[in-house]
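Write out this protein's structure.
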Amino acid sequence: MNSNFELSRILMVKNQLRPNKIKEKVILDLFQTIPKEKFVPEDLKNFCYSDKNINITSKRGYLKNLHLAQIIHNAEITKDDNVLHIGGLTGYLSLVIAQLCKKLIIIEEDNKILLNLKDNLGNYNINNIEIIESALETGYSPLAPYDLIIIDCPLYKFKKELVDQLNLNQGRLIYIEKLNDDLSKAYKLTRNNVNQNIEYLFDVFSHFSLMK
């Protein structure tokens, strides 16, 4: 264990998460113990606990640690939830989600990213994760319905069929909608049969884009 990274995680939780209404002990403990440095390129390891976005590819990466924690906080994940994570990237946020839910389906469409994702999560003894190669924009209907769908990378518009894959009774979709190249807003959509409620969560400043 690298004591410098361990200290960085403690300070990240203390200075970034706690002052911004992330209070749940289980969430704080996960962000304090899961080694994000193992999920980012070598040249970014020393910056992964800073208050910055982390690029993984030219268009995708990890949002600030606070935003990742806000996603988990607002998702209200339970131990009975069947969750779809669209775009697992290197597996860091997926690993957090997996500790909180019953079943986690992760989809990726890029073969190189997919192989890295499998390698990274293969280092952990987790039996509730299934990783599938699939187009990101269409979700994964064969294993629907989902109690929760998480898209943590900004996108311009999601397809209606993602909502159709939600549980009819309080199925949730967390997504980040791009307003322009740099500004996005995070929302939580909750489905109740044919009705939908959309709640604004927080602003995101990032050039990341999952699909256009």
